[in-house]
Amino acid sequence: MKPAEDLTKQNVTPISKTLQAIQARIGTQNLDSPSPMGAWLNGRIEAAEHHSITLSYEIRPEMSNPAGILHGGTTAAMLDDVIGITVYSLERETFFATINLNMDYLGASRIGQRVIAQSQIVRAGRTVIHATAELRTPEGKILAKASSNLVASPYQRSSQQTAQSEAAT
């Protein structure tokens, strides 16, 4: 492997400590997420790359609507969660908050099924980050897609989040 200074000359972005910590947890549940919503969703980390994270979720009864179908609000939370983790992996000094989340619901999934959420950073500016995410079945059928803008907030990343990232490496 080449030294870090050689990587910058080649336009290759070094992997952040946070992304390395996420990669070390591939195949595990995200129960210790610094986000209470993320911990409740209990996604399983499937893949982690620069600007993209993949999580899978098992649909539980409390995630459904009265028809036993994945609730739209839960779907939005899943896609917001995977986008948030991806933005967090960029290791920005400030916390980035979602300012909009545009959803398209394209299919249905039932209690007991597993779904896969994958994010992609489209543009990472200094104060605004634009990202997309999709929710699919394991067979690849699209269930929902989202686009989101996140803005740098006046808040720093919490010390709990930083400590968890460092402890995992």
Describe this structure in words.
- 28% of the residues lie in helices and 36% in strands.
- The protein has 169 residues and is an alpha+beta fold.
- A 6-stranded antiparallel β-sheet has the order 1-2-4-5-6-3.
- Helix 2 (17-24) crosses helix 5 (159-168).
- The model is unreliable at 1-10 and 160-169 (pLDDT under 50).
Short description:
With 169 residues, this protein is an alpha+beta fold. It has five helices and six strands.
Name a few traits of the molecule.
single chain; alpha+beta; 6-stranded antiparallel β-sheet; disordered C terminus
| Coarse shape | globular
Proportion of beta-strand residues: 35-45%
Q: How helical, in percent, are the residues?
A: 25-40%
Major sheet: 6 strands, antiparallel
End-to-end Cα distance, whole Å, is 19 Å
Low-confidence spans: pLDDT under 50, at least 5 residues? Answer: 1-10, 160-169
Number of helices: 5
Instruction: Determine the structural class based on helices, strands and strand pairing.
Output: alpha+beta
The number of distinct β-strands equals 6
Radius of gyration over alpha carbons?
A: 16 Å
Give the rounded overall mean pLDDT: 87
